[in-house]
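Holo prediction — guanosine-5'-triphosphate.
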Amino acid sequence: MYQGEDKLYYTATRADRAILMGIWNRTHSLEQAEEYLKELAFLAETAGVQAVKMTMQKLDTPHPATFVGKGKLEEVQADVEKLEATLVIFDEDLSPTQLRNIERTLNIRVLDRSGLILQIFSEHARTAQARTQVELARAEYMLPRLTRLWTHLSRERGGIGLKGAGEKEIETDRRMLRTRIAQLKEELKHIAKQTETRRKHRKPMVRVALVGYTNVGKSTLMNTLAKSTVLAENKLFATLDTTVRKVVLSTVPFLLADTVGFIRKLPHHLVESFKSTLDEVQEADILVHVIDVSNYHYMEHIRVVQDTLASLQAMDKPMLYVFNKADLLDEDERADLSRTWLQGQRHPAVFISATQREGLEELRNLLVAMVIDQYKHKYPGLDYYSM
Ligand SMILES: Nc1nc2c(ncn2[C@@H]2O[C@H](COP(=O)(O)OP(=O)(O)OP(=O)(O)O)[C@@H](O)[C@H]2O)c(=O)[nH]1
Ligand SMILES: [Mg+2]
């Protein structure tokens, strides 16, 4: 963190009242779009922002200048005034030009989905590595988007600031950001070296990583299995820092990692800069894919996680599907899901409730069997029981 940072990054605050804007079209239905907006509202809530309205437009080809059409913007403008909104959040990513044009048209601050996720990440990062990674992602995201509009608008709402943001001022900001980006990259290199050294001194132990969509219960499960106290909350991205614990189940030891959750359309800057945090996923011998089965859209979440794993080249690992929050399902739903998921799948699957402690025995048994397989395969002859 450095002086003047708050001036450079978009930061929504607790005082903000936001209008959420989404689109639907041939590729995503109205129903899907509604779900996406609900997720955006949850993201906003996680950032402490109050959503005062959700609105949608059918749009197949985004407008290059303002993303949505002129009519829609006028409608939003009226809502802004009526609801005394201070912020508009777009569910889609906006180009720097679109963002600037919409801000100027509406005379209000505008955030897009990536900007909001980046803010949440930067508020939740704890370790030096996570903080550096998030700040790098945020700085790179901001570089083409610098307008200084945010500071001007928040100081003097009413648009006088709109003309005040001079090119010269912005050029200074850009220089500051570029210097900062270079610094952050250096810091990350340094951190990576330290991690590398630590990795070389690792014991020969099977590594298991908990992966999954955000807010599915990974940390809760980690706490249950490892008797640890990782922060688990009804928030998106409660976990950003990887935690690794040694766990012993039925006298078989292994390392268990809790990792950052995935989400639909994770900003690519973030995925890039989080690669080293996600090393734990790439290096895992076994992936435990945790799913919130009470979420109506869990199938889509599974797909998002699989795509993200594929982009990390981590799809071919032995995987265990853990259907969590089963306590929130009724008998029929459970029976339905058991039929579809516990049979004919390539990977073993288990239904559990991490909070109600149901199904944990079965989970432990499946996991231990997989861990033993990995020891045999990876460290043949190793007397792992005595580690
Ligand atoms: N009903 C129910 N709630 C659960 C269960 N497991 C976890 N939760 C709740 O789900 C919320 C999210 O749990 P976390 O463990 O923080 O989820 P996470 O996957 O680590 O989330 P991120 O770190 O934010 O990606 C918390 O409010 C938990 O109490 C469960 O089995 N049943
Ligand atoms: Mg977590």
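READOUT: Residues 218-219, 232, 238-239 surround magnesium ion (ligand 2) (CB under 6 Å).
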